[in-house]
Amino acid sequence: MLKTFEDVVLALAHCYPEVNGAFRLWNGRTVTIGNHPPCFTLHLHSEQAARRLLREGSLGFGEEYMAGTIDIEGDIQQLLRLGMDRRFRDTCIPVSTKARIFLEHLRSLNTIHQSRTNISSHYDHGNDFYQLWLDTSLAYSCAYFRTPQDSLEAAQQQKYELICRKLRLQPGETLLDIGCGWGGMMVYAARHYQAHVRGITLSEQQYEYTRERIRREGLGNQLEVRLQDYRDTEGQFDKFVSIGMFEHVGKKFIPTYMQKVHALLKPGGLGLLHTIGKDNGIGKNDRGDPWISRYIFPGGYIPLLDEILRAMGNRDLVALDMENLRLHYALTLGHWIHRFEQQVDRIQAMTDESFVRMWRIYFHYCQATFQWGQTRLYQILFSKGLQNDYPLTRNHMQVAGNITENP
Amino acid sequence: MLKTFEDVVLALAHCYPEVNGAFRLWNGRTVTIGNHPPCFTLHLHSEQAARRLLREGSLGFGEEYMAGTIDIEGDIQQLLRLGMDRRFRDTCIPVSTKARIFLEHLRSLNTIHQSRTNISSHYDHGNDFYQLWLDTSLAYSCAYFRTPQDSLEAAQQQKYELICRKLRLQPGETLLDIGCGWGGMMVYAARHYQAHVRGITLSEQQYEYTRERIRREGLGNQLEVRLQDYRDTEGQFDKFVSIGMFEHVGKKFIPTYMQKVHALLKPGGLGLLHTIGKDNGIGKNDRGDPWISRYIFPGGYIPLLDEILRAMGNRDLVALDMENLRLHYALTLGHWIHRFEQQVDRIQAMTDESFVRMWRIYFHYCQATFQWGQTRLYQILFSKGLQNDYPLTRNHMQVAGNITENP
């Protein structure tokens, strides 16, 4: 059956009667859906862009948007909600594109050497770039909102607090933070819980920033940061945390990661894994979104909840608690998008228009997948072997209000 | 290498220096372990019993204990803690016994016909038997303790309350309870949350009891109980719950079960699965404990956490929250053991000594596996498809004190 762009749009309109939008085509025609004024307009400046969108899904959409042959006005989320529909995801990517994706997948496999390159490509755009739109603690991961009205600053501090509470972190305990970013969790655990924290990262700029931050805040007795691969770190810790790093491990290395976590924890020690994941068996064997892999996270892999838990179980890491914070990530991304757009002129001056368009559509795409699509944010609490002293209830996990930001 | 009983005991003593116990052998010898007075004594009245214990693990132990060739004085839990050790679990069951186990496994497969027989064999011993040692609501599943000092009555009511809170049960909503037992959850949801509940069970005695209970309590407008297999029930419900029934589904039927749950829930509806499970990859392909399968739960199967979540994901059931209540089940079993022993003379008069010995060792074995071994109790909250209105935090799940028992 011939699948034209208009056919697909009209088929989707049937399934999403509450979505109102307009599609301005290259030939001057406009297709509208919904019974109310459109809340977005998608401009397709060429037939080629429409064809790539239909054939290559997010890869075509992302590349055409970056190139400026697609523009979007109004509420991008409502547009992307349609994009989450299976009809757009079940695209027929040409064999040549598939071959390119597969080669890039092989090239980006997270060997110890390649991991550093993969990480650097995303996190070493310059700390001043991230400082323009992240909260002051520079948490580049899902925050924890007590209410949707919470500020981003408060919600990131609340995330740190929630994790410390789940981990039952005690003064003087040692904590390992794999993928420590710019040190936000480390500083919180040191200041509020008097913990001794080792953080490791593969980003040179994160490493330099965190080293300087530890010095500036006078926390050298409690905090240590290393430019190191998780496979190379040694020692035994009371507690373990990893926030938004597991997505970089890759399917092939999940068992290696769990084996290492097991080795690094003391018997009975508690760990918290905070990671994006999927619960959906559909597309189980795929290598994730090809546009994201190509432009945003080379070597990245969104793990399935069951494969995380199986790998834990195989290494005697006992799952105690799982919380799905999916909608918190949609809120977090909403803040980042708002702050990014407020600074967009400065960011464009630092980089270029294609970079700005790439980041904008990346943010929006992620927000849409958390809100309407397949991605989740899991916090999984576990112990190394059995831990018979953990509290019976979760009352201690409740985060109170008025957690003040750490300047 | 020759593996004698004394060798095994002495090897274990090295690994569990805190355990103090005595083993009185058939030949008059006594082996003691630990540096303090023994807290238990295991009497082995024949060499055959010792040999079966070594070769057949729990199957040999259970059968010899039932036959009276093994006796235990003192703290059975400390003895069974040793029994959880891998050296006892890695037993060399003779081929003839293996063949018998496999045939029994085939015979007990949970076809619609066989399920009723399997359920009846455990739950139709007579309601008066269960009333002797369960709480007044007759909850034959893990309770929820706010403190270890909570009474069993309070802890079972708290379990119902916790589930209603996780499910955000609202007045007038419809709830399906698969494996409703003697109706405790149904009555709680009707009385405290004004819900309309359908409960289904395969036990005739549970069905008769629950029907009479609904009539007696005047809840006929809100509650309906059916003697029905889950595969045969129809309709669409706002909420779903299943407490301690999933263990009877069997590995082969897990996808069938999830498909049915998906069909029975309204889009966006919430479900709670409360089930024993395992997180451990070791022994992943085994059919569970052969003694338990033979004597306690024919057709029973302890699912793995990852296989539960994979089956959910494959059916678009989105995991929102998981809580491991393992130690709550150890506490629950402690209450049941205490109450059982208080009534042991009456129970023995109703049945026989072999039955009493079988139930005693079943209870103790289960308590030990929750406390020291491989079994867990998972509460998994999920939604059918995405549910974007669920609260951001878990504050609403917190169970307050002073939940009064429903007489």
Q: What would your notes on this structure say?
A:
2 copies of one chain form a homodimer. The first copy, chain A, is an alpha/beta fold and 407 residues long. Chain A has 2 domains: 5-93, Nonspecific Lipid-transfer Protein, Chain A (2-Layer Sandwich); 112-397, Rossmann fold (3-Layer(aba) Sandwich), CATH 3.40.50. Chain A is built from 16 helices and 11 strands. Chain A has helices at residues 5-15, 47-67, 76-83, 86-89, 95-107, 112-123, 127-131, 152-166, 184-193, 204-216, 254-264, 290-296, 305-314, 326-342, 344-350, 353-371; strands spanning 21-24, 30-33, 40-44, 70-74, 174-178, 196-201, 223-227, 237-243, 265-278, 317-324, 375-384. In chain A, the strands form 2 sheets. A 7-stranded mixed β-sheet of chain A has the order 7-6-5-8-9-11-10, sandwiched between helices. In chain A, helix 9 links the parallel strand 5 and strand 6. Chain A starts with a helix and ends in a 23-residue tail after the last strand. The mean pLDDT of chain A is 90. The A-B interface holds A 145-148, 278-281, 304-307, 309-310, 312-314, 316, 318-324, 327-328, 371-372, 376, 386, 388, 390, 392-395, 397-399 and B 145-148, 278-281, 304-307, 309-310, 312-314, 316, 318-324, 327-328, 371-372, 376, 386, 388, 390, 392-395, 397-399. Chains A, B: Residues 24-82 form the DUF7884 domain. Chains A, B: The active site is at 366. Chains A, B: Belongs to the CFA/CMAS family.
CATH topology of the largest domain in chain A: Rossmann fold
Note the quaternary state here. Answer: homodimer
Q: Any idea what the shape of chain A is? A: globular
Strand content of chain A: 15-25%
Q: Please tell me the total number of domains of chain A.
A: 2
The total of beta strands of chain A comes to 11
DSSP summary: helix tally of chain A = 16
Keywords (chains A, B): Lipid metabolism, Methyltransferase, S-adenosyl-L-methionine, Transferase
GO molecular function (chains A, B): cyclopropane-fatty-acyl-phospholipid synthase activity
Protein name (chains A, B): Cyclopropane-fatty-acyl-phospholipid synthase
EC number (chains A, B): 2.1.1.79
